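Tutorial, part two.
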Amino acid sequence: MRAAVATLAVSLAIVFSLGWASNGFTALTSQKARQLAVATEPRDVPDVELVMANGERRMLHEILSGRRGSTVVGFFYAGCQTICLTLANDFTQLQGSLTDRSDDLEVNLLSISFAPETDSPTVLQAYAKRMAAQVGIWDIAVIRHTKDLPDLYRSFGLRVIGDGKGGYVHNSAFHILSPEGKLVGIVDLARPQAALKLATSAAML
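Running the prediction step on this input gives:
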């Protein structure tokens, strides 16, 4: 009996430790915690200025509000050879799914580079061509002012660290934004159909 009680006490201690470290028992990682927080209470995102691949300057909220449905946003930089490739492949799948759809629920794709010092419109155009991105379905842009990056990182839960070789180590995910400029959902990479399902549901609200 004592052994059983001791075992139970140790198990409870482990559970409580995990719960304390993971946002009330329900989230085991910071990513999961963000996903749950956003699903419970959508958050406003900053209205940053972007430079599109064609060189046009546009505000993020202007882009979002000009669309009928929700927008799936992913963050990248053009020279990335790691996690961004997964994101690009996922966006390619999403673009194919959206092209094949016959319903009138509009879902949009937007890739935003956080590296304005290297990702000029010319670089973005080459990236768009390489990805076969179709304007109006999958738009590509770069943030214009580096001073806006801290707010952007904070609101989207991004972690971006220079790798000492001119590149970056960073996290990434699908971020679902409403036309009103609210982050309404976050979906892990390599789950493009789950992201599309959530974006479609958001477009119906």
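The first helix runs from residue 2 to 21. In part three we will examine how such features are distributed along the chain.
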